[in-house]
């Protein structure tokens, strides 16, 4: 009963007969059921069954009527449903219900769906607006970044990007919860999409900055581009990439620039060949103009206009190219050294959260590579400059043809549309450390070619203008036929030495300044040696080219000779012009050898003292130039008038549009006799002061003595003088020989039967009159040579008289007196030109005549009277011929 009491208590039935049950059939029913379950499940024989039965009976009575009614209704409904409704074919009676429900749902959906959709859309819109409002900065970020890019506002772009990146990271790291799950997922999805657009914009901007950085020179604002990339964050090191790209760009630019320079050089050479005049008069005019450079001053032409134009254009281009790359290499090393020692990195950003800090330190391998790249840039620069000066014309043309072919192929390739678009190639930088031909190898080849050229120049050994020159009728060499000019691609065809030394000295000064500046860079000792080798190479090539022009000038120096004596001197203007010319050339060569105009921008010596071989070569070329100039002048002097006119033509037609050029270049050619006399005077002037002055100048400029050369040249000019003098007097001697021999031996005079003389013999008058003509010719051309020429011819005349009288077997008294008076007349008339040798000849003549005279029938008184008469006759003859032979008086002679 205790357990039953618990049940009663649970249902609120402590009273065994509660009155509330009468009104609560449900509780009764539940109690009955529970009670039944209790009895069915836990009757152990001790329960008060009377009370239970009482309550059960009472509950049954109270609900019997209701139960009967409900049971009847349920049975009836069950039968009907079993009969017509609860069938499998009708889905157990729910088909109609389902249909009704479906129809109701369809109509409800038609009515409620737009409402629900609008509500859902509104909810989403509200959520979106809430999301946008909360993250408005991120939603505006792509447009803001594009605007900053458009305006070039790098600072704003970096600031906005970093802020947006921070906000995005914060959203990505929000804590996850069930309540915020859907909203957070949606928010993150939207933010990721927006951030993806931001990354697209920034990556495009990075590519633009990478491109600008790859094209930035050391003097550009490359730090800005590197800073932007470090601020935005990049995987590759922009410092390393920029340095490597810069090296690669500089190497490619040097190749292209020097190839273009070579092409321009070929074009200029062709222009010179096509436009240079061939007229001797025009060449002489400009050559004379160049010689007068020191005295004229100002901006004047130092060569033919076409050649000067080539010099000027080549000088401007080579200086522009070399200055540019010298500056770029120096700037590169300045930038690179700043990164190597860490000075530049101190001002660079480390990126967001220090992500770019790893790019601010270069590895040991990278540092070694940067120094190697800097050295290779210097070596490549030195090699390309040396190549320009070392190439021959053939090599230059071959190189130009190869470049043109390569450009043509590239052009055709691009026209086919196969050229890939230029892209930023961070990981595909060309490895420049292993070139097919290193800079050192190219320099070695340059030096080898230079030695070959030097050997070729040595073939032009000194020319000794000895007997083979005098009397030769060969024409002077044509300047245009000089094949040695093909050894120097940078040398304009037929350029003179004055213009060559002037322009090359300026170019060398520029090269020396650049080399000095590059040598001051603390890259390595090796790059200094390369620069020294470069300067030595181009100096030797420039000196070689100048010497070649020097020798050509010497060969054609005769074109300025107009064979006109100047009033204040005893010769033509050639000796003075030769002094001026050689002085200008020697000064120019001194500038080439020592390069004093190069600015010393560092304490490192790049321009070493010239080698003894180089100075010795200049010494040899100096002697050559004198020999060659004399050779050409002598050939002109001894060439016949007919041949000379055929060679030189008529230079009087030449006109030169320059007021500083003399107009008297084209004066008519002088006769051969006059040219010989003038040439003798010129040699005397050259040997007397000009050459010695030049030797002193040479010794002062190059600190070398020329004693041996001076003696050789002095001896050679003495021989030349003797040969020219002999050439001039040869025909005149022959003429005097004919006159005298004919008069003594072939005129019909019978010296053994001749009577008392009445006058000086006609052959004597004839000979002396011819001597008067010679005196007039010599005094009008070379007054200083009068005594020398007349004395030499007088010696020949007296000697011819002696030789002729020796052929007379016997003189009569009259014949003896006639011969004696003839000799004495010459002796007395030509007293001013007497010499001991001539006086000895006179005495020998007298003795020869006396020895051949028959004295057997001579009386002393008769002889005395005859001699007195002879004195009177001589006095009479002198008076009668006073005017004819007035030129032989002492007071009329021109002293040396």
TrEMBL record:
One of its GO terms (cellular component) is exocyst. The keyword Protein transport applies. InterPro entries: EXOC2/Sec5 (IPR029175), EXOC2/Sec5_N_dom (IPR039481). Pfam families: Sec5 (PF15469). The keyword Transport applies. GO terms for biological process: exocytosis; Golgi to plasma membrane transport; protein transport. Signal peptide: none annotated. Residues 59-888 form the Exocyst complex component EXOC2/Sec5 N-terminal domain. Keywords: Exocytosis, Protein transport, Transport. Belongs to the SEC5 family. Component of the exocyst complex involved in the docking of exocytic vesicles with fusion sites on the plasma membrane. Component of the exocyst complex. This is Exocyst complex component SEC5. It comes from Lipomyces starkeyi NRRL Y-11557.
């Amino acid at each position: 009963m205790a357990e039953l009491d618990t049940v009663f208590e649970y249902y609120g039935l402590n009273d065994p007969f509660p009155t509330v049950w009468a009104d609560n059939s449900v509780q009764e029913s539940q109690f009955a059921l529970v009670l039944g379950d209790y009895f069915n499940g836990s009757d152990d024989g001790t329960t008060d069954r009377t009370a239970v039965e009482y309550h059960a009976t009472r509950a049954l009575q109270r609900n019997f009527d209701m139960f009967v009614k409900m049971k009847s209704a349920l049975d009836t409904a069950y039968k009907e449903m079993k009969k017509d409704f609860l069938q499998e074919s009708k889905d157990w009676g729910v088909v109609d219900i389902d249909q009704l429900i479906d129809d109701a749902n369809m109509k409800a959906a038609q009515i409620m769906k737009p409402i629900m959709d609008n509500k859902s859309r509104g909810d989403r819109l509200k959520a979106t607006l809430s999301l946008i409002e909360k993250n408005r900065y991120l939603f505006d970020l792509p447009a803001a970044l594009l605007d900053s890019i458009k305006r070039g506002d790098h600072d704003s772009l970096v600031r906005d990007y970093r802020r947006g990146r921070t906000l995005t990271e914060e959203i990505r790291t929000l804590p996850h919860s069930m309540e915020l799950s859907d909203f957070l997922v949606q928010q993150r999805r939207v933010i990721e999409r927006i951030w993806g657009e931001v990354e697209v914009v920034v990556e495009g901007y990075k590519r633009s900055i990478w491109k600008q950085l790859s094209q930035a020179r050391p003097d550009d604002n490359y730090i800005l581009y590197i800073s932007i990339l470090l601020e935005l964050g990049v995987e590759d090191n922009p410092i390393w990439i920029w340095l490597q790209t810069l090296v690669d760009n500089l190497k490619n630019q040097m190749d292209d620039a020097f190839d273009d320079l070579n092409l321009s050089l070929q074009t200029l050479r062709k222009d010179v060949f096509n436009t240079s005049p061939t007229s001797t008069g025009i060449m002489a005019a400009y050559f004379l103009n160049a010689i007068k450079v020191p005295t004229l001053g100002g901006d004047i032409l130092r060569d033919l206009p076409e050649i000067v134009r080539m010099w000027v254009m080549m000088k401007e281009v080579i200086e522009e190219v070399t200055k540019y790359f010298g500056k770029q290499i120096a700037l590169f090393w300045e930038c690179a050294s700043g990164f190597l020692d860490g000075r530049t990195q101190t001002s660079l950003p480390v990126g967001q959260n220090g992500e770019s800090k790893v790019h601010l330190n270069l590895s040991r391998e990278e540092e070694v590579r940067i120094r190697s790249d800097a050295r290779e840039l210097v070596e490549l620069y030195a090699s390309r400059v040396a190549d320009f000066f070392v190439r021959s014309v053939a090599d230059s043309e071959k190189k130009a043809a190869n470049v043109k072919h390569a450009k043509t192929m590239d052009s055709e390739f691009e026209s086919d549309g196969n050229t890939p678009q230029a892209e930023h190639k961070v990981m595909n930088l060309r490895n420049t450390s292993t070139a097919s031909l290193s800079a050192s190898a190219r320099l070695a080849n340059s030096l080898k070619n230079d030695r070959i050229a030097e050997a070729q120049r040595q073939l032009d050994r000194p020319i000794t203008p000895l007997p083979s020159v005098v009397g030769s009728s060969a024409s002077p060499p044509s300047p245009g036929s000089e094949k040695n000019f093909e050894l120097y691609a940078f040398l304009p065809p037929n350029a003179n030495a004055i213009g060559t030394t002037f322009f090359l000295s300026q170019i060398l000064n520029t090269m020396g300044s650049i080399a000095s500046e590059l040598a001051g860079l603390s890259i390595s000792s090796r790059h200094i040696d390369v620069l020294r080798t470069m300067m030595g190479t181009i100096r030797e090539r420039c000196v070689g080219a100048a010497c070649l022009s020097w020798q050509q000038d010497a060969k054609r120096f005769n074109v300025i000779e107009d064979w006109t004596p100047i009033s204040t001197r005893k010769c033509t203007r050639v000796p003075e012009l030769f002094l001026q010319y050689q002085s200008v050339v020697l000064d120019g060569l001194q500038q080439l050898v020592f390069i004093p105009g190069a600015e010393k921008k560092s304490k490192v010596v790049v321009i070493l003292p010239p080698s003894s071989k180089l100075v010795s070569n200049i010494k040899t070329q100096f002697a050559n130039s004198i020999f060659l100039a004399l050779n050409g002048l002598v050939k002109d002097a001894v060439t016949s008038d007919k041949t000379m006119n055929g060679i030189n033509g008529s230079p009087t037609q030449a006109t030169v549009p320059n007021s500083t050029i003399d107009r008297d270049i084209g004066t008519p050619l002088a006769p051969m006799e006059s040219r010989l006399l003038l040439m003798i005077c010129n040699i005397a002037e050259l040997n007397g002061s000009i050459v010695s002055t030049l030797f002193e100048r040479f010794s002062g400029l190059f600190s070398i003595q020329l004693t041996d050369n001076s003696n050789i040249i002095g001896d050679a000019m003495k021989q030349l003088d003797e040969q020219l003098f002999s050439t001039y007097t040869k025909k005149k001697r022959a003429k005097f020989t004919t006159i005298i021999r004919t008069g003594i031996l072939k005129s019909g005079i019978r010296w053994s039967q001749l009577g008392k003389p009445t006058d000086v013999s006609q052959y004597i008058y004839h000979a002396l009159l011819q001597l008067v003509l010679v005196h007039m010719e010599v005094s009008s051309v070379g007054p200083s040579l009068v005594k020398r020429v007349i004395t030499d011819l007088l010696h020949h005349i007296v000697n011819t008289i002696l030789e002729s009288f020796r052929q007379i077997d016997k003189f009569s008294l009259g014949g003896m007196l006639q011969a004696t008076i003839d000799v004495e007349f010459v002796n007395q008339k030509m007293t001013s030109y007497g010499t001991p040798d001539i006086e000895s000849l006179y005495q020998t003549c007298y003795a020869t005549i006396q020895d051949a005279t028959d004295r057997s029938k001579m009386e002393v008184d008769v002889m005395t009277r005859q001699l007195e008469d002879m004195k009177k006759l001589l006095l009479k003859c002198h008076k009668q011929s006073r005017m004819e032979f007035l030129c032989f008086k002492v007071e009329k002679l021109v002293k040396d």
